[in-house]
Amino acid sequence: MWYSEELGTIPTARPFKYNGISYPAGIFKQPTILADMTIYPLRVEKIDTRYYTQGEMTRTFDGSMWVESYEAVPKDFEVLQKELVRYYLNLLDTTLARTDKFLTRSDEMAQWFSKWTINPALQAWRDGVYLLFNIRMNAITEAVTFEGLVLADEQSFVIPEQPEPYEVETE
Predict the structure, then answer these.
(1) pLDDT value, residue 60
(2) Residue 67 scores a pLDDT above 80
(3) Residue 6: CA atoms inside 13 Å, Cβ hemisphere, count?
(4) Euclidean distance between the first and final Cα of the chain, in Å?
(5) Of 21, 27, 97, 124, which has the maximum CB count within 10 A?
């Protein structure tokens, strides 16, 4: 990506006219010729869109490159909270299968399906994953400031590997 005060932003190498002269797209492989025409590379510094929205743009020149940056405006607290809750609920849905969610309710399941032997390692994994998500969701919903939401979201969150299943015996 390139930028010139006369031509504006040039996203891809393409033919263009400068001072009445036509130049082919290949000219973008010649940085010294571009510099003579005051066309320099452009670097865009992006913001973390998980927590912030894009604010006012600033473009600066350091002598060899243009840098375009944006003000990071914190998202509205309620909007961010809803986005984080939705993100973790979707992640939970992709981590645990529909049956896993039912099997975490082991007391209820034991009452109804006690004739099946459940893999204890798999049951512990299901319970642990469910608890991990509950802790994260509670931290997000109990946060009262923007900084609290970011802190709750940035805490370590490692989903353990699922253990290998084994044959289930039935009576």
Answers:
(1) 94
(2) yes
(3) 12
(4) 68
(5) 27
